[in-house]
Amino acid sequence: MTSPAPLADLPLPLPGDDDRRRVAARRSKALQITGDQSGDGRRGRRIALRLLSLLAFFALWWGLTRAGIWDELFIPRPGAVWERFLESIRTKTTTTTTSAGMEIVIEKRGLRDALLWEHWWATVQRILWGLLWAVLVGVPLGLLLTTVNWFRVVFEPWIDFLRSLPPLAYFSLLIIWFGIGDTSKIWLLFLAGVAPITLSIVSGARSIPRDRLLAAQALGASRLQTIRHLVLPSVLPDFFNGFRLAVGFAWTTIVAAETTAGLPGIGGLAWVSKKTGQSDIVILCIIVIGVTAVLFDYGIKVLERRLLPWRGRG
Amino acid sequence: MNHHRIRRPALVAVVLAAAISLVAVGCGSSDSGSSPDGDPTTTAAGSKATGAGDSAGAPKKIRIAYQAIPNGDLIVKQQELLEKALPDTEIDWQLFDSGGSVNEAIVAGDIDLGLAGSSPVSRGISNEIPYQVVWIHDVIGDAEALVVNEDIGGIEDLEGKTIATPFASTAHFSLLAALNDAGVDPSTVDIIDSEPDEIFAAWGQGDIDGAYVWNPNLAKIIDDGGKVLITSADLAEKGKTTYDLGVASNEFAEKYPAALAAWAKAQDQAISLIEEEPETAAEIVAAELEITPEEAAAQIGDLIFVRATDQVGDEYLGGGLAENLFAAAQFNKEQGEIEDVLDESAYQDAVNAAPAESAGG
């Protein structure tokens, strides 16, 4: 590429500019990894596309139910789901008078005795607790596995064993041990989340170039200093991968975890509604779970960008 | 990596200890946030020795397992009758979907009072679950029935057919009883275990020839062309009555007879409302089940309710129920459903009419 510096006064396109444009054009035909965070000024178009796909989805949904091909039990109308949503966010009070003249007040709070946000918060709280313990245990565990030989020899098979189990396989045991309350659910989410976090730390630490470790040692860094200044920053990108996986596992596990004594809870509400054939409430729950999970993921991405501004550009 | 590994066991120990203490703190804090603080086992432990003062005391918290069955229990819950009767007690209502899971929760010590069908209760007593029957929520009438394809003539024709029912439920018990009564060996029928909503889905797909199931899925199958061969009301006439029962853990019943009596009183109030103000009762049940009052009224109509004064009679808590539970256990053993039947006295001891007596008086 030529240096454009001496031609800076000229009003017309610079030859260097042209070169650059050509290079850019060639690049755009080459394979690109989509979805990286290099925002390229096409934000408006992106939002429009997404809105359009959402609109198309609702139109398709509306059209299919309108055509009446399937029973409402299988695909409820968008309107029915909307009505359930309105029902779920308010408390309805009706008063009836019995024939004996007694007044009876029937207070109906949201759906299944709780407002939508109360169901939502109960579930989110369980997930946050489970993830918190998964991180607090998973990170030290990963560090121990990579820095202490005997620990790795003894515990790695156990972690591999735990990792390969579907969490629901041991959920009934957790209920026997910890009861039907939140404790067993938080344990389940913790166990589902701890393996990906631990393994992400392990894989991150193992990919640290040996030279760097040797350099740190040569400069007289203690074990703790090496962990603090070399290992922790190096494993951070892998940690975020593992954490996102753990969040995903937590969301896939929670609905199942809330099949027992899951009310209030979004998963519990979905389960009860499935049992009673109220598909409109099930769809409402699915939408709430989906939107929340996407927001969680978005939040983690933002955090990652803040903490790791160099990621994807190195 | 080996070069990096400096032998310093002290650091390892510190990190390990930190990790372990975090876990310990974590469990502790989530425990206190969720599990019953006022666990009767701990709050009552001190007062147990004092005797007289014991029975008058109200528990801090009562943990109740309820089910989505349109009976008085839902009215007690919706109208907060128990909360009003025991203002100083926190009532924790937990929804369960089968008597089997209520049994498990009582074994685990998570539940003080629960609703379960007579078949799971009979099994529970046979397995020496430390609980007792203190109430009859309802007698299952037409709410559970055997529905089949229209081309099946009668129960005798079920050989080789696929019939779905939730295992270990009252419906399962009734299905076996109906087959036996018609002289059909149950082992010649393909009986599959399935949850009620899945039974309806399987029916819609044509995967099953019939089902013994309850409302609302029973009503849906009938709407979809299902033919009723026999109902639990018919079986009751043949001596195979099934019930939805109220059970209390022995520990709770011994420590808090006054609270149990208040609970029975609330239940009796609810049944009187169902009998005297059916429309209001339907509205209340509808609010609990997220259905319309008309649907609720139809479902309530398929159950038979018994007031406290009648419950204590010989037909029910006064003797008949214990016989029924014993007979159900014997039947379940014959069918290979349970291992052992206890002595008949165990079933008599497991029925406690005192709360109903005090509620009726």
Structure overview:
By secondary structure, chain A is mainly alpha-helical. Chain A has helices at 15-29, 43-67, 78-88, 116-147, 149-164, 171-178, 182-206, 210-218, 223-257, 266-275, 279-307; strands spanning 91-97, 103-109. A two-stranded antiparallel ribbon of chain A has the order 1-2. In chain A, helix 4 (116-147) packs across helix 10 (266-275) and helix 5 packs across helix 7. Mean pLDDT of chain B is 85; it is low at 1-55. With 361 residues, chain B is an alpha/beta fold. The longest helix of chain B is centred in the N-terminal third of the chain and has 26 residues, at 9-34. Chain B has helices spanning 9-34, 40-43, 52-56, 72-78, 81-85, 99-107, 118-126, 170-181, 196-205, 217-223, 232-237, 250-255, 257-276, 278-289, 293-301, 308-311, 320-334, 344-349, 354-360, and strands at residues 61-67, 90-96, 113-117, 131-140, 144-148, 162-165, 190-193, 210-214, 227-231, 243-249, 303-304.
Amount of helix of chain B: 40-55%
Widest beta sheet: strand line-up of chain B: 2-1-3-10-4-11
- CATH fold name of the domain at 116-307 in chain A: MetI-like fold
Give the overall pLDDT of chain B as a whole number: 85
Number of strands of chain A: 2
SS-derived structural category of chain A: mainly alpha
Q: Describe the global form of chain A.
A: globular
The count of helical stretches of chain B stands at 19
CATH homology superfamily of the domain at 116-307 in chain A: MetI-like
Count of DSSP helices of chain A?
11
Distance separating the two termini of chain A? 22 Å
The CATH architecture classification of the domain at 116-307 in chain A is Orthogonal Bundle
Q: Which radius of gyration of chain A do the C-alpha atoms yield? A: 27 Å
Strand content of chain A: under 5%
Q: What can be said about the biggest beta sheet of chain A?
A: 2 strands, antiparallel
Structural descriptors:
heterodimer, A: 314 residues, mainly alpha, MetI-like fold, 11 helices, globular, disordered N terminus, B: 361 residues, alpha/beta, D-Maltodextrin-Binding Protein, domain 2, 2 domains, 6-stranded mixed sheet
